[in-house]
Write a structure and sequence with these properties.
The chain has four helices and eleven strands. The chain is an alpha+beta fold and 198 residues long. It folds into two domains: 12-82, no CATH class; 95-197, Immunoglobulin-like, CATH 2.60.40. The radius of gyration is 17 Å and the shape is globular.
């Protein structure tokens, strides 16, 4: 768990305040700048937001506070397992298995084909492509802006999607796309990478 003395990453309180929109303008700008450069904090933020979104879908509104607390504890407890891969080069320390899953520090991730982490791509005809992870897998694909806001999402059984024109992405802006595989046996595997629109 991170504490307030950490100077390398956003603290747990800062991530929670960011998600709750409790940061001042300057604090939010600093957090956005840090998230744009720090894959570890971005992965933590993305995982926590997904947990919170799932909790909101499944629970009545009166349980959101309790679900948020439980989700935060679980997300922060899982953080040590996420450490171990090089954020700038997603292939460092990773091996890709035949089933399209790569591993880092014992944690499975979906192997991405394109755009790869850190790529600069054209908006027209932007296609997100990943390797399959097994028969019967369903994939939730989400594109988020640098503040964590959802620009577009879809659920598919294929391993590629073309972003529609309705997904408005801004030239020069950085985005994150994630693919979350739901396997036939109930397991989930997720990978998030960043890209910039030319």
């Amino acid at each position: 768990m991170r504490d307030e003395t950490s100077s390398v990453h956003l603290t747990n309180d800062r991530v929670a305040a960011f998600l709750d929109s409790r940061l001042t303008g300057a604090e939010r700008d600093a957090a956005v700048r840090h998230l744009a450069e720090c894959a570890e904090c971005r992965a933590e933020l993305t995982a926590l937001r997904a947990v919170l979104d799932t909790a909101r879908e499944r629970r009545p509104h009166r349980w959101i506070a309790a679900a948020t607390a439980v989700a935060a504890i679980l997300a922060f407890a899982m953080l040590p397992r996420l450490v171990g891969s090089d954020a700038e080069n997603p292939t460092v320390g990773l091996t890709r298995a035949e089933d399209g899953v790569r591993t880092a520090a014992g944690v499975g991730e979906i192997a991405i084909h394109s755009p790869h982490d850190g790529a600069t791509v054209a908006r027209d005809g932007l296609t997100l492509v990943w390797y399959p992870v097994g028969v019967g897998a369903r994939y939730d694909v989400v594109v988020q802006d640098s503040t964590g806001g959802t620009a577009w999402r879809v659920r598919v059984s294929d391993t590629s999607v073309v972003l529609p024109d309705s997904a408005r992405l801004t030239s020069g802006a950085r985005y994150f796309w994630s693919v979350d595989a739901r396997l036939a046996d109930g397991r989930t595997i997720k990978t998030t990478v960043r890209f910039t629109i030319r």
